[in-house]
Design brief:
Layout lengths: L9 H17 L15 H44 L1
Length: 86
């Protein structure tokens, strides 16, 4: 092996990926503590739809963060393997 500097480090990539993955858990929206099924005001239905939409959007963002985390780890491993083969 030649005397060279390795440019990538898989442990750094894994550490960053873990932080991103943890963010997916931290942004979870708590369930509604109570649901008002008796109110007839328009805002009640609108707020429920907005809450449902925010849960769906949050789930999509969380899924994307987990996917990105896996991609970062895989890229770190690939770069480290490439560095080691040089």
């Amino acid at each position: 092996m030649s005397d060279r500097t390795i440019l990538s480090e898989v442990t750094d990539a894994e550490r960053r990926a873990t932080r991103i993955s943890n963010a997916a858990t931290e942004i979870q929206i708590p369930n509604l503590s109570s649901t008002d099924e008796q109110s007839t005001i328009t805002a009640n239905g609108s707020s429920k739809r907005a809450y449902t939409f925010s849960q769906s959007t949050n789930a999509n963002v969380s899924e994307a963060l987990v996917t990105a985390s896996g991609n970062i780890t895989a890229a770190g491993e690939s770069f480290e393997n490439w560095d080691n083969s040089q």
